[in-house]
Amino acid sequence: MWGMILKAFPEVSAAVRGRTVAIEPLVSKIGCVQRLALFDLDRTLIDLDAAFRRWAEEFAERHRLDAEGLTWLVSQDQETHPHREVFFSKVRERFALAESVEELWVDYRRRMPHLVQCYPGVLAGLAELRAAGWRVGIVTNGMADNQLGKLRRTGLAVAVDGYAVSGVEGIRKPERGLFEIAAQRCGANLAEGGWIVGDNLVADIAGGQAAGLRGIWVDRGTWPGHEHRADHVVTAVAEAIAIMRDMHQPG
After folding, report:
1. What cofactors does this protein use (predicted)?
2. What's the rounded Cα separation, in Å, for the pair 235 and 217?
3. Fewest C-beta atoms under 10 Å: which of 39, 57, 125, 193?
4. Are both 158 and 238 inside the same structural domain?
C-alpha cells in the first residue's frame, strides 16, 4: 500500500526510501508557527489495538473459536491493517463463515465505535490546548461510518474545533488536501504552519511536513528500525501536547 502512495506523491516519496523514512522539515526550527494542532485518530488519540482485541474476543465467542483462532485473528490484524477487506477475506476462508466479506466488514465497522476508548489524558489534554487559545483538529483516514462513529462515541467530535475524514472528503493522507480541510474547519490557514501529531511516519509525519506542518511522531513500536527526521518523538499524546505548549510559551 505505502509503495503506491509514495509513487503517487513525489514530495513524500523524496522523503521515504524503502523501509527508511528521511523527512526534512519544511518549517523553520520554530519560526512564526500558528497555534494549530492537528492530530491523527487511530493509535494516536484512541487505542485501536485494545479495541480490536475486544472485538476479536467477541467475534471468537460468537463463532465459537478456540484460543488458537483468537490468536490468529490478532496476528492477522497486524499483518493486514489497514487492509480490512483483505483481513475479512482471510477470516471468512479460515473459519468457513457463511457471511460475505462485505457483511463481515460492515458488521465490524458498526461495532468498533462502541469499543474504542481514548488513551488516558487525551480529552483533558485537548481541552487544555483549546483553553490556551489553540485551534485543535483531527485528520484521519478511514471509512466514513467507522471514523465518524469513533469520533462521536469517544466524545472527540465535540472536543476539537474541526475534523476531516478521508471517507467523507474523498481524499487521503498523505495528500495535502485533507490537512487543508481539517485546518479550515478549525478556522486556520494551513499556509501559516502548525503541528501534526500522529503514529504513522508516512501518512501523518511525512504528509504533514510536506504540507508545511511540524511533525511529532507518536512511536507506538509499529515502525521498528525506521530512521526518521520528525521534529519530535514521543510515546504518548500528553508528551506531544506538553512540547507544543512549552514551545509556544510567551518569552
Report:
1. Mg(2+)
2. 8
3. 57
4. yes
Q: Are residues 43 and 53 in the same domain?
A: no
pLDDT digits (tens, 9 = 90+) for 2-25: 444 444 444 444 444 333 333 333
Residue 132: count other Cβ atoms within 10 Å of its Cβ: 13
Query: d(Cα 118, Cα 134) in Å, to the nearest integer?
Result: 20
Residue 192 is part of which domain span?
Answer: 36-47+118-247
Do 87 and 193 lie in one domain? The reply is no
Q: Are residues 140 and 173 in the same domain?
A: yes
Give the number of residues written for the chain.
251
Q: Return phi, psi of residue 223, to 5°.
A: -125, 55
Helix (H) or strand (E) holding 36: strand 36-39
Rounded-to-integer distance, Cα 58 and Cα 106, Å: 15
Give the C-alpha separation, 134 to 129, whole Å: 5
Predicted TM-score (pTM) of the model is 0.85
